[in-house]
Amino acid sequence: MKQFKIIISGGGTGGHIFPAISLGLGFKKRYPESNILYVGAINKMEMNIVPKYNFKIKGLWISGFQRSLSYKNLIFPLKLVYSLAQAFLIIKKFKPDIVIGTGGFVSGPVLLISQILKIPNVIQEQNSFPGLTNRILSIKTKIVFVAFQGMSKYFKDKKVMLFGNPLRNFNNDTKINRSELRDRFNLNKEKKLLLILGGSLGSKKINEFVKRKIDFFKKNNFQILWQTGKKYFHDFKKFSDNDIKVFPFIQEINKVFSISNVIISRSGAITLSELCFSKTPVFLIPSPNVTDNHQYYNALAYERKGAAILIEENELENKFEGSFVDLINDPKKQKYMIDNLNKMAKRNSVDLIINEIIKLI
Predict the structure, then answer these.
(1) How far apart are CA 108 and CA 102, in angstroms?
(2) Dist. CA 116–CA 99, nearest whole Å
């Protein structure tokens, strides 16, 4: 049995962490003897999440550059130099066969040092508009794996492969007992279900919006499964009642998709890739507070394919209610959106990516 030594780095949000974990699990399934080291950022969510999947993890002292005026930028150069030194020592000691970067500021030092040391390295870019770090680092990387069409223009003269985003358990066809699932959440079988997803970190704006629209949703015979994010759970759990179930985080979200009638969601790349496996029409509300406004461009790509309804935060009060009522009263439109959403699903992404990585080792 082949044994590979692999460093995977990515973090800051679930959109960077879970693709990394999915690839790590894929390698472990195919090559159980492989030695995988995850490199994350100290005090970020990956330091808590990754060990739950039985991967070793090292933390770098690094954070992103603040786009607004902030005292934190004063120590950014120091953190960058220190994290590069940390990455160098980690890589020299571990001696990986390959380094995989899945994005987030922490992957920058790790990929850069791997390139300086001439260790094979690849990038897995989740978004439709790549960040500056990945665009720069792609110059010396072997392959850039992408999830959206038309990405070659950002990675000129590089080997770009469209395999989709590596997901957790969305590529299988495990049978789901929907009746049992509804009972688990204590849902009313006579009412439709609205699923609220504010991203892995939660969204104050979406949570506040849902709070204001509770009566509107109830009037339209909807009950709500509401994922607030851990940060906002205590502020919104008081709205729980017979028709509203509030959670900081919902596990096995692929199963919950199967019992939902409408979904309201942020448009992070991994969330969108997961939604492609649902049978549910979706409203996308992109976060305006992300690098290069990539969530907007992600959502726009889906809207242009007829796979989702895009409403920006500043348009919610004027557009949402009318769009929602139109959708729930138009079964043909729902089917059209679901069909287009499912067409965008990329199956077997993990296996396809691993096949190409193995060729580089």
Answers:
(1) 10
(2) 12
170: in domain: no
How does DSSP assign 3-70, residue by residue? --EEEEE--SSHHHHHHHHHHHHHHHHH-TT-EEEEEEETTSTHHHHGGGGT-EEEEE---PPPSS--
Nearest Cα residue to 226 out of 170, 176, 187: 187
| Residues 265-304 as b or e (16 or more Cβ within 10 Å = b) | bbbbbbbbbbbbbbebbbbbbbbeebbeebbbebbbbbbe
For the chain, how many structural domains are there in total?
2
Mean pLDDT computed over every residue of the chain: 92
Find the CATH number of the domain harbouring 69. Answer: 3.40.50.2000
Q: Are residues 232 and 89 in the same domain?
A: no
The predicted-structure confidence for 167-186, as pLDDT tens digits, reads as follows: 866 544 456 789 999 999 99
Which residues sit opposite 6 in a β-bridge? 36, 98
Residues 336, 356: one domain? no
| pTM greater than 0.85 (yes/no) | no
Give the CA-trace dihedral at 340, 341, 342, 345, to 10 degrees: 120
The C-alpha atoms of residue 129 and residue 315 are separated, in whole angstroms, by 22
| Domain extent for 254 | 178-343
User: One-letter amino acid identity for 283?
Assistant: F
Q: Which pLDDT score, from 0 to 100, does residue 14 have?
A: 84
**For residue range 273-284, what is the model confidence (pLDDT) as tens digits?**
999 999 999 999
My answer on whether 119 and 201 are in the same domain is no
Does 202 share its domain with 334? yes
* Residue 220 and residue 321 in one domain: yes
